[in-house]
Amino acid sequence: MFSAFSASITNAHTAAEVRYDADGYIIETIKKKYTIKDLPVPSNDSRWSRGLVGTITLWAGAQPNIWVIPEELLIAAVQVVWDVVFPHVKYRVTADGLVMAIVSSRFNIWS
Q: What is the pLDDT of residues 38-80, one digit of tens each?
């Protein structure tokens, strides 16, 4: 049985309607293109750029082949870092979700 509830959160740039599943995790709407404004945390929060993105970049640099990282491994690493950097925000990292889209775009800029 699936149940969801909604709440309004305020981002630094926009107010967005956020839905949560029965376990309290954010249910995101899949889009074709995401921007940093879509994040479930304020985009001007330095924990995003320095904490999550910075840590994942360092993690990727420590991999045997930084140019070929299996998607499942990257998703698992992003989830672990997300849970540490944003322990108060229940979010499931998915291959087609906004966090992976933005992290991947940062990696594309880096490469």
A: 888 887 888 988 899 999 999 999 999 988 899 999 999 999 9
User: What φ, ψ does residue 18 adopt, rounded to 5°?
Assistant: -115, 135
Nearest to 36 by CA among 55, 59, 53: 53
User: Which of 3, 34, 20 has its CA nearest to residue 89?
Assistant: 20
Q: What residue type is 111 in one-letter code?
A: S
CA distance to 29, 43, 98, 104, 109, per residue, from 60 (Å): 27, 22, 19, 11, 14
Please tell me the pTM assigned to this model. Answer: 0.72
Q: 28 vs 13, 91, 105, CA distance in Å? A: 18, 9, 18
